[in-house]
Amino acid sequence: MVISMLSIFQEYLFIIWIIVALALLPMTSALPEETPFPDISFQEFSQFISQNFNPTISLASVLCMLFSITENPDLLALHIRQQNARFPEEHSTMVSAWIWCLSRSIQNKLCVKGKTLLNALEEGPNVPNDQTITILGTKLDTLADILQLKPFV
Predict the structure, then answer these.
(1) Helix-then-strand count for the chain, H and E
(2) What predicted TM-score, i.e. pTM, was given to this entire model?
(3) Residue range 9-45, pLDDT digits in tens
(4) Is residue 142 within a helix (H) or strand (E), and if so which, with residue range?
(5) Sign, Cα dihedral of 74, 143, 34, 68
């Protein structure tokens, strides 16, 4: 019995050494940093929404934009970095490709079946789609300002 156990142990010795070696490797894990929810009064937030968006905008659309901004800190950081040139070769842009893509995604998701996010002068049949997305990107950038989500300005 002992001899058979020793022969089995010798057969699997290599696998045991691999398991032990892998168990001793240092491991790391990364968790996203939790940021506190923006400290803004409801009146200030409501005033911004009513001044910058269509008066018939739904609560679901407003919350979708709010959570899109607050839950994408990496995208927002890349956008803000592109707004602030550090080196002579760089060019600052007000509406970076990052915020432009986010605004295009929001518009494609929320502007269906005749629903609009922007005012009639900013969005309509006479306004090109790229210009509408740029306007929405500018408003999302301003929303990030109001929510104090910009790390450096």
Answers:
(1) 7, 0
(2) 0.70
(3) 677 777 777 887 778 877 766 656 666 677 888 999 9
(4) helix 129-146
(5) negative
Burial of 1 (0-12, 13-18, 19+ CB in 10 A): exposed
SS3 120: coil
Question: Whole-angstrom Cα distance, residue 54 to residue 108?
Answer: 16
Contacts (Cβ under 8 Å, ≥6 apart) of 145: 153
Is it the case that residue 48 has pLDDT exceeding 70?
yes
State how far the Cα of 71 lies from the Cα of 63, in Å rounded to an integer.
Answer: 12
- Angle in degrees, CA 126, 103, 100, rounded to 5: 90
Residue type, 10: Q
Q: What one-character-per-residue DSSP string does 32-82 give?
A: PPP-PPP---HHHHHHHHHHHS-TT--HHHHHHHHHHHHT-HHHHHHHHHH
Q: What is the dihedral of CA 66, 62, 121, 43, to 10 degrees?
A: -90
| Joined tokens for residue 14 | 């290599």
Distance separating alpha carbons of residues 103 and 109, to the nearest angstrom? 10
